[in-house]
Amino acid sequence: MKKRFGLIACIFAAIALFIAVFATKDKIAQAANKIYLNATDITLELGHYKTLKVYGTNEKATFKSANTRAATVTSGGKVTAQGWGSTTIYTYVAGKTLKTKVTIVQMSKKNVTLAPGNTIKLELWGSDSSTTWSSDNTKVATVSDDGLVTGVGVGKATVTATFNGKKITSQITVIGLNHTYKVLEFGGKFSLTRSNYGSTIKLQVTGSNEKVTWSSSDTKVAVVDSKGKVTAKGPGEARIYASVNGSSVYAVIRVLKMEHNTLELKKGETFKLNVLGTDSEIIWKSNKKSVATVDDNGVVTAVKQGTAKIIAEVDGRLVRCIVTVK
């Protein structure tokens, strides 16, 4: 009995194997007769291309674009994006018509320069609300879910819009200046090379090596040359702008001027000194009180014959007047 059941089981197993082999061969045969394309739905960035390939036949195919303003196709199947929008590429081969949907997208700006805190809205033309946005360096620039880019810190970042599996990028450069605020002196004639004296400063853009255009908001206060060298011209405050690729950063330049940088007094005479270009608190000092003193309001009193330096410390800078007592 057991032998009989074993024989029956073997017969059923053989039948099942035969059916499986036959079915597999049938599927292979069907697949061999199927004609298809390597892509039926593609997304291209403007100016980019993809070549369509026909599988399942050796017959020659012909191609046609329904909208050549959106994309063209060559006789070899090379589809090139011409303008954002969409079209259908028809492939005619072996009596069949195959279709490929083509969507062309374009980033509104491929290269962006920003100052920290500034924003710009990027758009992926030709896409829809399914687009996702990301930044590869959020310490430099962030991007919102709808493409609003915000400059964070000096450097470079890549913002990527992903649509229909296609990634389109925009390069973000965030620029800065080596100085954002500087105090200079105009008309000072002494110790100009020391750290707390001087009438010039060199500004440099950080984060970018592109061409910089320099300008001053008030050339009566400070001027700037094509290399970023700022020169004081008179008391007051000006902004020095550095423009790179359509975006600007600026440094505030305050220029101080001692109203009189040399003074001659007779013993017992007084004179009130003023520092022009600021309304900040001034600390007054004399380096030789035996010759001349100065009070908290800048009033100098000649004491005896000789020379003294009256120093005004204001806005982090030292400006001086040389007092000669006769």
Describe the structure.
The chain has 326 residues and is mainly beta. Helices cover 10% and strands 50% of the residues.
Topology, pairings included?
Elements: H1 2-33, E1 36-37, E2 41-45, E3 49-51, E4 54-55, E5 62-65, E6 71-73, E7 78-81, E8 85-93, E9 96-107, E10 111-114, E11 119-121, E12 124-125, E13 132-135, E14 141-143, E15 148-151, E16 155-163, E17 166-174, E18 176-177, E19 181-185, E20 200-202, E21 205-206, E22 213-216, E23 222-224, E24 229-232, E25 236-244, E26 247-258, E27 262-265, E28 270-272, E29 275-276, E30 283-286, E31 292-294, E32 299-302, E33 306-314, E34 317-325
Parallel strand pairs: 2-9, 10-17, 19-26, 27-34
Antiparallel strand pairs: 1-4, 3-7, 5-8, 6-7, 8-9, 9-12, 11-15, 13-16, 14-15, 16-17, 18-21, 20-24, 22-25, 23-24, 25-26, 26-29, 28-32, 30-33, 31-32, 33-34
Shape: rod-shaped
- Percent in helix: under 10%
Ends distance: 142 Å
Secondary-structure content class:
mainly beta
The total strand number stands at: 34
Number of H/I helices: 1
Parts with pLDDT < 50 across at least 5 consecutive residues: 1-5, 17-32
Strand content: over 45%
Provide mean pLDDT, rounded: 89
Rg is 39 Å
The major β-sheet equals: 5 strands, mixed
